[in-house]
């Protein structure tokens, strides 16, 4: 991902506020920018609220489910900074993730 694009995502720039050179690097495609926003947010385990991803994904629960799936598939640590959402909203605890991961690796 382009560092300029990442910078503008991190700063919560909506598509209409992006500089022309950044839009051009994305092929002038708002849809492409939204894909980058989603991927960046999931990779960095960002909260849904107060971030640009809330304008791209309307379903908060689905976003967190995608985030957990990505984290699990890429062997990332449990997102403890999101535990208030994970435990209360999705009912996913670190122990549950550990059990799922160990169960999958022990099968032959």
From TrEMBL:
Gene Ontology cellular component list: cytoplasmic vesicle; trans-Golgi network
Domain FAM91 N-terminal: 8-95
TM regions (residue ranges): none
InterPro entries, per database record: FAM91, FAM91_N_dom
Pfam families registered for this protein in UniProt: FAM91_N
Highest taxon listed in the record's lineage: Eukaryota
Biological processes per GO annotation: intracellular protein transport; vesicle tethering to Golgi
Protein name (database record): FAM91 N-terminal domain-containing protein
Organism: Takifugu bimaculatus
